[in-house]
Write a structure and sequence with these properties.
It contains eight helices and 25 strands. The protein starts with a strand and ends in a 19-residue tail after the last helix. With about 400 residues, the chain is of the alpha/beta class. The C terminus is likely disordered. Bound molecules: flavin-adenine dinucleotide. The site of flavin-adenine dinucleotide has 36 residues, from helix 1, strand 2, helix 6 and strand 21.
């Protein structure tokens, strides 16, 4: 029976970051990682960006081996036993642990249709399948106007493919961006050659002569050879729930990433934590959180008490536009836009009761830490106070590098 000081369930970016955190604090401790995918941990963001622009696949692998962790890939953990400090997998192996981390992330939300014709884009294998299909001159239907849908549609279009986006909301990124920016993106995608079907979702799908016929919620019909769905994820809470841990939109953790069981931790996309600057609980599905929270969870598991007070940032690239964002960027909040060039370069502030809750840095780089500092300020702020508050600095650094520790 494999017996580890530290057992990590989930083989993603959080798992890798946690192994590094553990190794940093306790180099002699034994670490086991069990992951369902047939690969060692890798970076997910390039799957919808850099790999389509020619970055080689070798670049995505994380340096998990440096931590000395034993990697068990292609195994699904079916149950954990908090009291007995054990976990068992789908091949009948039982593992023992002193400390356990749940880094189970999330799985793509699925449509209520039984078909393997839809690619739910999340993993390296999904990327490989779509990339191979993109070598052919076929029609792609991309569902969803959130991060995955908008990035995948751009990536496919940049290969010169015929792409239609089917978006239930009125604009692209409608849950995040102010209405005018979200509407601008619809036109922008159209100019790039993407067919935009706004206010339409998928109601049904059937195969017809080697193609898929998609029936839309407004009674329309679309035909494509490949359907890609980006409908968000459902956090992987089943193991925690069945073990009786506290769960509410993710696995609830304290500031040391500890669940309701003292020897079990959770981090990354699956974890629901308190952020002091915002004064609320958050569950964040982004890279900076996976990396930073994963490491902090590892440090805590190995006895180096380290509160997780970090406010994660995220980023995305849409053709030649790019942005970084931090805090609560929710389109339902009051927004104040400070454009240097409208919809091209600028800063959008998200406010609630006069406090800045989130900041969108649109083609504006190197301001993430300043945005975090602004969110920590009590305010109150008016629109006038915020004009010019953060400089619009389009020069450096490139997307994705903005100020995370
Ligand atoms: C295509 C794509 C592009 C992205 N781009 C960006 C970006 O530009 N910027 C940004 O900030 N973020 C981006 N993200 C989000 C970011 O990648 C995620 O926040 C991050 O991957 C979360 O890592 P995680 O390890 O917590 O969860 P996951 O990545 O979901 O990994 C969890 C792993 O655990 C495994 N697992 C789950 N349950 C079990 C079990 N019971 N037994 C064994 N294994 C299990 C899963 O198979 C999975 O491999 C992107 C995500 C995707 C998919």
């Amino acid at each position: 029976m494999p017996d580890y000081d530290y057992l990590i369930i989930g083989g993603g970016m959080t798992a890798d970051a946690a192994a590094h955190g553990i190794h940093e604090a306790d180099a002699a401790g034994s670490i086991g990682i069990i992951g369902a995918e047939p690969h060692p941990p890798y970076d997910r963001p390039p799957l919808s960006k850099a790999l389509w622009k020619g970055e080689p696949e070798e670049k995505i692998w994380r340096k998990t081996k440096d931590t000395g962790a034993a990697l068990e890939v292609g195994r699904w953990v079916t149950a954990i036993d908090p009291r007995g400090h054990g976990a068992s997998d789908d091949r009948g192996t039982t593992y023992r642990f002193k400390k356990l981390l749940l880094a189970t992330g999330g799985t793509p939300r699925r449509l209520p249709l039984k078909t393997d014709q839809i690619i739910y884009f999340r993993t390296l294998d999904d990327y490989r399948r779509l990339h191979a299909l993109a070598a052919h001159d076929v029609r792609f239907l991309v569902m969803g106007g959130g991060f995955i849908g908008s990035e995948v549609a751009a990536a496919l279009r940049m290969q010169g493919r015929n792409v239609t986006m089917l978006v239930p909301e009125a604009g692209v990124g409608a849950r995040v961006f102010p209405t005018d920016l979200s509407a601008f993106l619809v036109d922008y995608y159209r100019q790039k050659g993407v067919t935009m079907r706004m206010g339409e979702g998928m109601a049904g799908l059937e195969p017809r002569a080697g193609s898929c016929v998609v029936r839309t919620t407004t009674g329309g019909e679309l035909i494509g050879e490949v359907v890609v769905a980006g409908l968000g994820i459902v956090p992987g809470v089943e193991l925690a729930e069945e073990a009786g841990l506290d769960v509410d939109n993710g696995i609830l953790v304290d500031e040391f990433c500890r669940t309701s069981h003292p020897d079990i931790y959770a981090a990354g996309d699956v974890a629901n934590f308190v952020n002091p600057a915002l004064g609320t609980r958050l569950r964040v599905e982004h890279e900076d959180n996976a990396n930073t929270m994963g490491r902090v969870a590892g440090l805590n598991m190995a006895g180096r008490a380290t509160p997780y007070h970090h406010l994660p940032f995220f980023y995305s690239d849409l053709f030649d536009l790019g942005y970084e964002a931090v805090g609560d960027v929710d389109a339902r909040l009051e927004t104040v836009a400070d454009w240097k060039q409208q919809f091209r370069e600028g800063v959008v502030y998200y406010l609630k009761s006069g406090r800045v809750r989130g900041v969108l840095l649109w083609n504006t780089w190197g301001q993430v830490d300043n945005a975090r500092a602004l969110i920590a300020e009590p305010g109150p702020f008016t629109a006038k106070d915020l004009k010019g508050r953060l400089p619009v600095t389009t020069e450096t650094p490139p997307p994705g590098s903005g100020g995370s520790p």
